[in-house]
């Protein structure tokens, strides 16, 4: 069943830190403090306009929820908790810093029906965390994740590749460390430079070079595949569009359809993996027909049909992508090679395994 989010943005509230990339008011596009009455009213508005279908979830994003005074946390949570008790919504989630959690705070969250806590992790490399001004170490993430699990909460990790000092090895290390902690969900937001932030000043002084869009897509793909390999859902890649955000981005890999670029790149590689086998097998062909889940067709053909062009240019093969309900999202079934019918399934997991084998071979060389 589709989950529909009723979002609340808590701009920088309660956070005593100033991470180099952060302009929380820009990211959340909402000035001022949210009050309990705003939460109650907004929940009612969403439920009134959203119809019956779906599973409603209240989410408190931005800022550091558990760094707010307990009275403010209660004020915000109470209307959501009431809606939960009345069966009008199904879940409540919050996001916070890893070093802002302890038994007392978790007791409050649990008492008000919160089930999922997203941690702003960004990196598991202490040097990168220090350069980003995060004010906590990777050990704090492990501690917070362990505490959340021991209390029976679900937890999520928000990661930010491309921070100062983070090369590909560092970001992939982060993904592996987090995957080993088995979060329930992951979000990956490559670092972008927002006007007026410390990162902006570093950029102007030549002390920071953001990732290009291509680098960010490729790095996010590699990170995403580490989670997919373990069956950990990556629920978002790239910043959520919000009014005023694009105008504030002064540099970095910002793209309104970043998630699509990432998923398109994975499909590109997955089809190409099969095309390479065909070419290596000495089979000469000009056309391939491949089926994916109908919801995935636009991702598979790539943003602006770019994958179709790339397969043609790289392999000289024209690929036709069709939707078939019976194909699970992420998997694909090759249906025809030229005019000959075939039925070859390439599951996402098989493709990831093949990538890992290739990596091992490369390392041996
Ligand atoms: S912890 Fe979050 S809200 Fe606080 S400065 Fe860092 S990014 Fe911004």
Describe this entry's structure for a reader.
The chain is of the alpha/beta class and 365 residues long. It has 2 domains: 3-256, TIM Barrel (Alpha-Beta Barrel); 265-364, no CATH class. 44% of the residues lie in helices and 20% in strands. The protein is built from 14 helices and 13 strands. It has a 7-stranded parallel β-sheet. It has a 4-stranded mixed β-sheet with strand order 11-10-12-13. Strands 7-9 form a two-stranded antiparallel ribbon. Helix 2 runs parallel beside helix 3 (70-85) and helix 9 (213-229) crosses helix 11. The longest helix is centred in the C-terminal third of the chain and has 23 residues, at 258-280. The mean pLDDT is 92. The structure holds iron/sulfur cluster. Iron/sulfur cluster binds at residues 12, 15, 17-19, 22, 24, 63-64, 97, 120.
Keyword list:
365 residues; alpha/beta; TIM Barrel; 7-stranded parallel β-sheet; 13 strands; 20% strand; globular; binds iron/sulfur cluster
Which hetero compounds are present in the coordinates?
iron/sulfur cluster
Beta-strand portion reads: 15-25%
Residue windows where pLDDT falls under 50 for at least 5 positions? none
How many strand units?
Answer: 13
Coarse morphology: globular
CATH architecture of the largest domain: Alpha-Beta Barrel
Strand order of the largest sheet: 1-2-3-4-5-6-8
Q: CATH H level of the largest domain: which superfamily?
A: Aldolase class I
Biggest beta-sheet profile: 7 strands, parallel
Secondary-structure element series? EHHEHEHEHHEHEEHHEHEHEHHEEEH
Q: How many structural domains are formed by the residues?
A: 2
- DSSP helix count? 14
**N→C terminal distance:** 47 Å
């Amino acid at each position: 069943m589709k989950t529909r989010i009723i979002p609340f943005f808590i701009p920088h509230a309660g956070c005593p830190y100033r991470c180099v990339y952060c302009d929380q008011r820009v990211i959340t596009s909402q000035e001022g403090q949210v009050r309990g009455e705003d939460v109650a009213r907004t929940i009612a508005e969403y439920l009134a306009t959203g119809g019956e279908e779906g599973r409603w979830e209240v989410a408190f994003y931005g800022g550091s929820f558990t760094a707010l005074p307990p009275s403010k946390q209660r004020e915000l949570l109470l209307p959501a908790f009431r809606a939960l008790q009345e069966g009008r919504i199904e879940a409540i989630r919050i996001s916070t810093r890893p070093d802002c959690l302890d038994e007392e705070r978790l007791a409050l969250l649990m008492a008000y029906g919160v089930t999922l806590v997203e941690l702003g992790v960004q990196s598991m490399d202490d040097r990168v965390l220090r350069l980003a001004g995060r004010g906590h170490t990777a050990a704090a993430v492990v501690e917070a994740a362990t505490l959340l699990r021991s209390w029976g909460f679900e937890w999520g990790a928000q990661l930010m590749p491309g921070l100062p000092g983070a090369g590909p090895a560092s970001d992939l290390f982060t993904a592996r460390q987090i995957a080993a902690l088995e979060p329930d969900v992951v979000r990956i937001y490559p670092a972008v430079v927002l006007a007026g932030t410390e990162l902006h000043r570093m950029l102007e002084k030549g002390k920071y070079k953001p990732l290009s869009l291509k680098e960010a897509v490729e790095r996010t793909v590699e990170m995403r595949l580490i989670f997919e390999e373990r069956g950990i859902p990556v629920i978002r890649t790239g910043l959520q569009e919000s009014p005023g955000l694009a105008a504030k981005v002064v540099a970095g890999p910002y793209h309104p359809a970043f998630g699509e670029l990432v998923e398109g790149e994975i499909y590109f590689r997955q089809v190409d993996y099969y095309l390479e086998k065909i070419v290596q097998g000495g089979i000469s062909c000009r056309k391939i027909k491949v089926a994916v889940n109908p919801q995935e067709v636009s991702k598979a053909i790539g943003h602006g049909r770019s994958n179709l062009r790339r397969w043609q240019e790289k392999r000289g093969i024209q690929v036709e992508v069709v939707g078939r309900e019976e194909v699970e999202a992420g998997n694909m079934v090759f249906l025809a090679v030229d005019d000959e019918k075939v039925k070859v399934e390439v599951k996402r997991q098989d493709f990831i395994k093949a990538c890992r084998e290739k990596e091992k071979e490369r390392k041996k060389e």
